[in-house]
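Worked example 4.2. Below are the chains of a multi-component assembly; read each line carefully before continuing.
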Amino acid sequence: MSSPDRSVPVRPVLHLRSVRAAYGRIEVLHGIDLVVRPCEVVALLGPNGAGKSTVLKVASGQLVPTAGCFHILGRHANGIRPDVLARSGLCTIPEGRGIFFNLTVTENLTMMTYGGSSRREVQERAFARFPRLAERRRQVAGTMSGGEQQMLAMARALSVQPAALLLDEISMGLAPLVVDELYELVAQIAADRVAVLLTEQFARAALGVASRVAVMAQGRIVAEGRPDDLPADLADAYLGGSGTAGRREAGGSADTRAGDTSAGDTNTSNGRAA
Amino acid sequence: MHELIAFTIVGVVTGAAYAVAASGLVVTYSTSGIFNIAHGAVGMFMAFVFWQFEMAWHWPPLAALFVTVCVVAPLSGAAVERFLIRRVSDASVATTLVVTIGLMVGLIGLVDTIWPPQARVLLPFFGHSGFQLVGVFVTWEDVITVGAALGIAAGLRLFLYRTRTGVTMRAVVDNRGLAGLNGARPARIGTLSWALGAMLASIAGILIAPELQLSVLPLTLLVVDAYAAAMIGRLRNLPLTFAGALLIGLLQSYAVGYMPSTGIWDSVPLQGMRLAIPSILLFVTLLILPQDKIRGAVIQVRRAVRPTAGLARSLQGAVFLVLAVVVATSFLGAGDTVDLGTGLALGLIMLSLVPLSGWGGQVSLCQMTFAGLGAFAMARAGGGGSPLGLLAAAGLAGAVGALVALPALRLKGLYLALATMAFAAAMDDMFFPTSTAFTFNGSVAIPRPSIFGLHFTGQRSFVIFLAVVFAVVSVALLALRRGPFGRVLSAMKDSEAACATLGLNLTLTKLVVFSISAAIAGFAGALYGGMESVAGATQFEMLQSLPILLLCVVGGVATCSGALFGGIVLGLGPVFQSALPQVGSVTLLGTGLAGATLGANPDGVMPALYERTASWCSGVSARLTGPLARKLAGSAAGSATGPGTAPA
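Applying the procedure described above to all two chains together yields the following structure tokens:
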């Protein structure tokens, strides 16, 4: 975490090179190239079933690419188990709250010490940022509100001090106010020289903090760039924001409809592979 | 007053032993998500290992204890997890149950082989010395038992809630994938939790063994009594588990002390109730306690969903079976014919599991109990071979099955299996040994039915009759499976939630399928008794239901041929035994080993065999028809049909 000189192009933390991945016999990623550097927040956007979560699964070691390769800090990382990656500085918060529902808040924090921090450090960092968690330290995590649960999940990103942070749909099921708060936190974490890769189905939430956006459809990245550089039609098709997305997709440009079909396909394959 | 204190102390000591056993069960379940039916068998095995060290090799007791509890037990526990449990960790409740049943049966067989049955003495720690406590003699062993229970309670609490490894064990059950994403090593944690479970089992086994003269079955089954305690703790809560264990110990002790034994009380059912207290308590606890959501059964992989055989195919199979038996019995010797007949009768009992477990997804551990009821009814009502006996057998078993199912209907998966197990254990103590049924340690003659003036007195004719019955029942079951009721059953197995949204009445479905299954088992039990000519209580005890379920699942519980496979294998036990006389119990050991194959082959042997032959046949036909088609249709069409037929 040294050399704060930002003018030199920094080595990417996460690097996916023509990655293909499949659930069983059904390929869902058809060649993904993606780079995430420190201090960057890269948002993967796109319709349901475009392959966003699969990219995160590959990047966290949960799914081994069938072709292409995936590098972490310049090291070839195909086939390294997720727990090994986690201990060496990758923090993944999966979809649907990355916490243990049956453990108390303190016990959840104990589970965050595998990254290398001591139990006291983890607790201090978590409670300093989220005083609410300190109040509820003995409470079973599953009985807290959705926002509090996501705070607890994000506490891992804070306390582990990772090199890269992977977030899958952290806004799911949360009130807009809480979502804004969470993304503010994501920006802060990224500013601490962390490479952040996140997925978001409703783009508007993430656009505020993303330094780069990659739009996915049918297992490919169809556009990439700074949030305001994206071609207008794509932005219209995929980034319609939470308010209008449903209507637009229902109305359906050809692209969106194709995206939806692939969504159906990948979901089926998902179910079979699971 | 003195008497009360004495019984209280005995009760506390018994309760402490139960507590040690139950705590191991709870730890294994809450850290690996798998209910280890073999927990008692592991403890029994370790008690024998300890005996070998201490009594046979004359090691100092402390060294023997240390090596058993801290070296042998954890290593074997870890090995079991590594080679057996890990492969089924995300399988259905039924599969995991069956694998641990296989472990239990296999361990019993292993002990019979290594330590051939003979009288063995395992002295309690510090012999029989002790001291007077408020006028009651207490041995040091008693003190150690209570001390061990308290120590384990405190130690486990600290370990599971205060150490990171302990917290991780619980976290892995909560969400295995997430534990890995946190950086924990889920595989290693799973191994560790089984090692710990085996250690606790070994302590329980060694503490209880001296009291039971180191005999295999009582030691294995005593821990079944601990299930009730574990269930009171809802398989998670250690303090409640300990309270439950104490309650059972005290109840049993007071029952011995204060239950009258004269007049009406001097009867086998009521005296058997003393023994059956833990089973009854288990049943009641299961019914009363709020149901926990069972984990690990959310997503079930069904690799190959085979279509049910149509009428033509099932008739072909039926005719083939009968012909095969007719041919086989024409040259088999008398002994082999009997084994074949026993196998067919056992297969018929297993057939009762096909609609219940194979199609409906419910696990029952009391099919032999229903079979016993059937044999009992046949002995009573089937005098002179009256076919009414068979009807009575099916009717009685079906009615009792419905009675058992009625309160147990709200139970799911594991809990239903344990409730049926408790029912079977209670029947072992309270009904089968009575003079009404099979008499204590005795046996009763079971008549063979005569139908349409045919008497099946000869072995060969009865064996062929059994084959015909098996074929007819199979065809009828398959017809049921293809009908609306079969569809509902299959839907229930796939998703109870989805069934509820469709407005299907699953309560009635479960009741009916349980009843049908019990009726088939009872009917089969009557014929099984007829095959053997006489039947005793031990043939139908709870322990006998375990190989029935296990081998049926190994054969393929969703197929009638799987039941046939299981039955024949179990029936041929004596043949295997005579081929390998140096192995103590080939049937038990082999059954256990068969259970271990489930990890590789969760659907069973027969479906895998069908698939193998089907792909072989299609391969052959593709090779035969490919060139032919090419010749007939010219090269353009031929290249299209060639690859087209191959993967079919």
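Take a moment to check your reading of the output against the notes. The beta strands of chain B are 130-133, 136-139, 443-445, 450-451, 454-455, 534-536. Confidence is low (pLDDT under 50) at residues 294-301, 635-648 of chain B.
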